Amino acid sequence: MKKCHGDPPSEALPDHGLARRVAAPSGHAYTAHAPQGGAIESVSAMNALASVTQPAGAYRPSDDEPFMSERQLAYFKTKLLAWKEDILRESKGTVINLKAETENHPDLVDRASSESDRALELRTRDRQRKLISKIDEALRRIEDGSYGYCEETGEPITLGRLEARPTATLSVEAQERHERRERVHRDD
Fold first, then answer.
1. What is the per-residue pLDDT for 188?
2. Which of 155, 177, 172, 166 is nearest to 131 (CA)?
3. Which of 86, 76, 56, 185 has the alpha carbon at shortest distance from 141?
4. Which domains does the chain have, with CATH numbers?
5. Which of 71, 115, 135, 164 has its CB surrounded by the most CB atoms within 10 Å?
6. pTM
7. Measured between alpha carbons, how far is 24 from 54 in angstroms, rounded to an integer?
8. Cα–Cα distances in Å, from 102 out to 38, 94, 98, 119, 175?
9. CA geometry: angle at 44 spanning 163 and 23, to 5°?
10. Which residues lie closer than 8 Å to 41 by C-beta, 6 or more apart?
11. CA gap 141, 135 in Å, rounded
């Protein structure tokens, strides 16, 4: 049996040569285990598996505690700051790559491919720039005490929704109503 640092003691599973170390966005390393006789097919499958595994003692907000307690607010603040840091780190890497990729391609197809890659990368960074502003807004809401509450109804946003989308400003029901109104107006 193989055990890796960061694995909970109760997760000592037989390896069968199928354990893979996976780096998670939080900086923790996890071991992903495939079913006996199976294989983990892709990096995204491994990352999905790793995302549901928590290191021993990791805090997760629960419905059993008061909504948006100090501990929950600290959890979401840490999550948002780590997400922002990851995006900024990726952006710095993009800037370095774009500066390094100033070569002039003699072949037109190579040049077109390079320009297409560059345009896609810039569009991605623009979307992430907008995401950073949403993260900053969420951090401001944490500071002013309105984080976790629907902007439209004032009702609490479920912890599951906030876990999946920490920048959410609307409850699921309010978001659905908003999207229905958007479709109706778009069809006009």
1. 60
2. 166
3. 76
4. 9-51 (no CATH), 70-187 (1.20.120.910)
5. 135
6. 0.63
7. 10
8. 44, 13, 7, 14, 43
9. 75
10. none
11. 10
Instruction: Tell which residue, 2, 4, 52, has the closest CA to residue 29.
Output: 4
Say if residue 17's pLDDT is above 90. Answer: no
Q: Are 34 and 40 in contact (CB under 8 A)?
A: yes
DSSP state of 148: T
64-73, 78-87, 112-121: range with lowest mean pLDDT? 112-121
Report the residue count for the chain. 188
Dihedral sign for Cα atoms in the order 173, 175, 176, 181:
positive
How far are the Cα atoms of 75, 125, 154, 187 from residue 121, in angstroms, in the given order?
31, 6, 38, 32
Q: Token pair 């640092």 is at which residue?
A: 5
Model confidence band, residue 13 (pLDDT cutoffs 50, 70, 90): very low
